[in-house]
Amino acid sequence: MTVGVRTGGSVTTPSEEDLAEYEQERPARRLRPALDLVVSIWCAIVSLGVLAQVFFPLPQGTQFYLVIFLAAVLPITLLCYRGFRLPGRTRTHDDPGVVDWVLAAVALAVCVYPLFDFDGFLERRQAPTTLDVIAGALLLILLLEACRRTTGWVLPVFSLVFIAYAYYGGYLPYTWSLAHQGFNFDAIIAQFTMGTAGFYGTPLSVAASYIVLFTIYGAVLDYSGAGKFFIDLSFAAFKRSRTAPGRTVTLAGFLLGSVSGSGTATAVSLGTVSWPILRRAGYPPEPAGGMLAASGIGAILSPPTLGAAAFIIAEFLQVSYLKVLGFAVIPTILYYLGILLAIEIDARKHGTTSAETSTDSAWRLLLRFGYHFLSLFVIIAFMAVDVPPFKAVVYAVIIQFGLSFLDREHRLTGRPLFKALAQGTRSVLPVAATCATAGVIVAVTTQTGLGLNLAEIIVNAARGLTSNHTAILILTVVLSGFAVLILGLAVPVTASFIIAAVIISPALVNLGVTQPEAYMFIFYYAVLSEVSPPTALAAVATAAITGGKVMPTMWQAWKYTLPAFLVPFAFVLTDNGAHLLGQGSFVGMVWTTLVSMLAVAALAVVTGGWVFVRATWLERAVCVPAAALLLYLAPVTITAGICLLLVAVVINLVRRQRQASSAEGTVAS
C-alpha cells in the first residue's frame, strides 16, 4: 500500500518493507527488477482473466475454471515466496533458485494435467489411474509446500494429520467415536483432486471468484488515491478535542481496512502515519499500540468488506453476501462503541490533549475527493438489487477506474493500472494457497464423517460435567471459543475459520444453535485471534512501531476489543441473540442492541477503570456480572444487570461528589 498523511507539510508513508514484515502471511521475496516485471505481467494477465470470467464464464464449468486458476497462481506462489531463508542472500534481491523453478514447473504440469481430458478425469474418480494418483500426490506435496512458505508449518502439519487419520482411521477400535472404514491412498487422492470437497472445493472457489476480485478492487482503490484520502479525511474530521486523536485512528482504521483487507496491514499503515500524532497528544506507547491494533482488526470485522471468511460463510450457508453483511451490522456497532468508550476513558486517565494537523478541512476534502466513496456504495447498491457480489465488485472496479481520472496525481493510466492489476493477484497468492490446502481438511472431514463425530465428542464432554441443557451449551460454546482462538494463533483467519466451521460448528448446531449464529461466532473468534495473547500479530506489529512493550500492548489491544470477545456469546447462548445478527423483528433488533450497548459500557468500566472518576475495584467487580447478565438478553437477567450497573454508577457518583467537596474545602482553607 502507498497511503500517507500530511503532517507538518510532509507526507509520511509506510514503506513496503514495513507492511511486508507484519503482513498476516509471510513476506514475499524481493525479486530483481527484471524478474519482478515478469511476475507482475503474469499476475496482471491473471487479474484480467479473473475479471473476464465474471462476464464470459468458461463453458466447461466452475471446476474447470478452478483448475486453471490454481495452475495460474500455484507456480507463481512457489517463485514469489522463499522456501528457507539462506544467510548468503543480499538485501537488494532474493530471487528463486533452481529448486524453486523446478517446483514451479512441476506445479504447472500437475495443475494442467486434468485439462487434457477433463471429462474423463472426473469420470475416473472411483477408479483413478496410476498417473492420476501420481499427479494428485505431487499436487498435494506442492500445495503443502506453498502453504508452508506463505503461512508457516501449522496448516500443512494439520493437513498431514488429517490425511493420516483418513488412511489409518480404519485401524482404530470400532467402538471409538472417531473410527471409520478407512481409505486407501488412491481414494484419498481422488477425493482431493477429482471431487468438489478437496482442492477444488468451496474454499478455493471463494478465493477464485470472490476474494481475488476484492483484492483487485482494493488495489485499484489504493492506486487511485482512496487510501490516502481516507486517512487525510480521518485526521481532518476530529481536530480539537482531547479524544480526537483516538477517534481519528478508529475512523481511519475503518476506512483504510476497506482498501487493505488485512487487519495487521491496516494497523501497520495506520500506526506509521498516526503514532507521531498520538505521541504528541500524550498517549503512552502501549495504549496507543493497543488502539492501533484494535482499529486495524475492526476493519475486517465490519461491513462493507468484512474479511475473506465472510465470503466462505455466504457459500456455506448458500445465502447472498449482502445477507452476511447484514449479520455483521449490529456487532460492528457494538465493537466500535467499545473502542470509543475505551478512548474516552483513556483520554481522561492519561490526560491527553488535541493534536493539530495541517490537513485541509473535512468538508473541503469531501467535496474534492469524496467520490472515492462512490464505488463502495455501488457494491452495496448492486447487491441490494440482487446483482451477484462478484459482478458488483467488477462494476465497482470499472467505476473507480473512471473516477481516478478526476485526480491528476492518481490517474490509472498505463503503469499505475498495470501495477494495480498485478497487485490484485499478488495479494491473493497466500489466500489461494491456504484455501486450496484447507480443502484437505474439508475433504477428509466429508469423507470420514469426522465433523459429526467430533461434535458428538465435544457435546458428550460437556454432558459428562452436567445434565442441564443450558450449562451444556455454555460449556460447549466456551470450549469452542477457546479452540478457535488457539487455532487462530497458528494459522491465518481464513484457514482457522474453515477448519472450525467443518469441525466445531456441528457441535453447536447439535445443541440448537442455528447455522448462521454458529458461523458468525466462529468468524469473530477467528479474526480476534490476531489480537489475542500470546501471539497477537497485530499488537506485535504496532508495538514495534510505537516502541512499546509487546505483552502490555497485547493486553491493551485485548482491552479495546473485549466487547467483540463477549458479544458473540449472545449469538449462541440466548434465544434473543439472533436479533443481534439482524434476524427477527425490528423492535427486537432495537431493544437487544440497546441492552448490549449497556453491556459494552459495563465492560468499558471493567477494563478502563473509569465512570465519572476513576473506578474502584469494587465498582469494576460489580460491572462484571452486570455485563454478563445484560448480554444474556433475557428479561430477568437484564433487570438484574441494570440494577448492578446502577449500583456501580451511584457509588462512583457519590465518590465524585465527595472528592469535589473535599477539593472545595481544601481551596477554601
Low-confidence stretches: 1-25
Strand order of the largest sheet: 1-2
* Strand count: 2
**Gap between N and C termini, in Å?**
61 Å
Mean pLDDT score: 83
What's the total helix number? Answer: 29
Structural class: mainly alpha
Question: Radius of gyration, rounded?
Answer: 26 Å
Q: Estimate the global geometry from the Cα principal axes.
A: globular
Strand content: under 5%
Major sheet attributes: 2 strands, antiparallel
What's the helical proportion of residues? Answer: over 70%
Description:
With 669 residues, this protein is mainly alpha-helical. Helix content is 72%, strand content 1%. The protein is globular. It has a two-stranded antiparallel ribbon. Residues 1-25 have low confidence and may be disordered. A hairpin with a 2-residue loop joins β1 and β2 (10-12). α26 packs antiparallel against α27.
